[in-house]
Structures are given as structure tokens and as C-alpha cells.
Automatic annotation (TrEMBL):
One GO term of the biological process aspect: innate immune response
Species per Swiss-Prot/TrEMBL record: Pelusios castaneus (West African mud turtle)
Record-level GO cellular component terms: cytoplasm
The name this protein goes by in its record: Protein phosphatase 1 regulatory inhibitor subunit 14B
Xref: SUPFAM superfamilies: Myosin phosphatase inhibitor 17kDa protein, CPI-17
Amino acid sequence: MAAPCSPESGPAEATGPRVYFQSPPGEPVQEEEEGPGRRQGKVTVKYDRKELRKRLNLEEWILEQLTQLYDCQEEEIPELEIDVDELLDMGSDDARGARVKELLVDCYKPTEAFVGDLLDKIRGMQKLSTPQKK
């Protein structure tokens, strides 16, 4: 199988998301203006970028808060996973809060403010399970 192409090997001017394809083995390579042996294709599946940005910001905020709660560096935070999609699947804020408190059982600092803020931040968010076709 041919090695994947890096974005740096494409044209200098980007007009949007692009995927580069190589010719299958055994086929003659045709030289094109865009690059040797490559043709451009558009990405056909798009994620909701606004939701992705919100999720990334939330995850960064969670890491920042956990470093303060556990009073340590990010690498030293105990193994725990706050699964936002799992929380969104739960029926009520009470169930979500109980789950987060269960995950933070080893934290010696008060967690009520963190849990309340987290529940406020995820309210209205959508699950990011599968991409949306457009």
C-alpha cells in the first residue's frame, strides 16, 4: 500500500480541506500540474466544526481544572476519564453529577464547584459519535 501523503506535499495555496490520492500500484503515473502522481479529492464527510471546537475547549478546561483539583501537572493526574458523551446520555443533571463525583472520589479538594461548572458547560452540547454527511 502506498504511503499517505502529508499536507505539506500539496499545493501551496489551500482552498479548503483536501485529500490527496496516489495512483494504484501498476498504473502508469500521470504527471499533473498539482503534483507528481497525485490528484485532489474533496472530503465528503464533515464534522460540525462548531461542536468540535466547543468539545475541545471543554476538554482543555477539564484538564486545567483537574490539575488544580489534584494540585499536580497534567501528566500526574490520576487515571480517570470524564466521558462527555456518557454524561450526555444520562437522563438528569443529578445522575451526571453523581457520575462525575464517583470519578473524583480520590480527590482531596472540594469538587462541588467543578461538578456544577462542568454540568453548566455540557448543557446543550451534542454527542460527537459519528460524522455528519453533507
